[in-house]
Amino acid sequence: MTDFWYRTSLRLLPGLVAGLIRLWFSTCRLKTHGGEEMLTFIDSGGKGIATFWHYSFLYNFYYLRGNRAAVMVSASRDGEYIARLAEKFGHVPVRGSSNRRGFRALREMLVELKRGNNAAVVADGSQGPARRAQAGCILMASRSGDPIFPLAWAASRCLTFKSWDRTVIPLPFSTVVLYQGKSMRVPPNLDQAAIEAWRLKLEQELNRLYNMAWTALGKEAHDQDLPRSRTSQGLHDLNGRDKQ
Q: What pLDDT is recorded for position 67?
């Protein structure tokens, strides 16, 4: 019986939620800053890797709906809802995370880039720590040669959930301020030190854009109640070996 309700909800909920999101977010007033480079690049036939913090993923599904992108989604049972929701916005879900079949998923993301799709990557992964970049996006850009386009947004009025990343949903008729940074082109054949340097550069740029977005609305960080300590994590290569 449990499986029956799970399968039924998978058939019904993603479509209903996608419709609600389209109606809900269409009432918001969007102000973008610095997005010309990414749009021009994609419109000219280029492929890019949009990357952002996990708190912002739901609105970004909607914002990027006109640009088909491969998106990495958790391989968990609950992740199937997010995967199907991504499909409703024209994206290609690739199942995996930093903790579960992550390296296979990273290779699948590279395949999708070779097929001509863009990519959308949550920089801090599916489990965090929040607003600490992981190495996957850097490895993807290095292996593919495609540029990274970092972005962050804030909302004048929003719902903030008590999740690990404090997921944010803009309220109807609110103002959404979205900042996009300049493209980052990561060189090929990086060693561990270079991967870490680029990872840190991406993290700093995303947090710079994040702070600009919330400051533009006269607000403090939406996740200021979270501890700001950064836990060191091992780097991985695409073959799944730790680089310590």
A: 85
**73, 64 Cβ separation under 8 angstroms:** no
* Buried b or exposed e, range 74-87, using 16+ CB within 10 angstroms: bbeeebbbbbbbbb
Q: Distance between CA atoms of 150 and 116, rounded to whole angstroms?
A: 20
Domain locations in the chain? Answer: 2-223
Residues of the chain with pLDDT > 70: what percent?
A: 90
d(CA 170, CA 155): 6
Q: What is the DSSP string of 112-172?
A: HHHTT-EEEEETTTTT--TT---SHHHHHHHHH-PPEEEEEEEESSEEE-SSTT--EEEPT
* pTM for this predicted structure: 0.85
Domain range 2-223, its CATH number among 3.20.20.210, 3.40.1130.10, 3.40.190.10, 3.40.50.450: 3.40.1130.10
Instruction: Say which DSSP state 49 is in.
Output: E
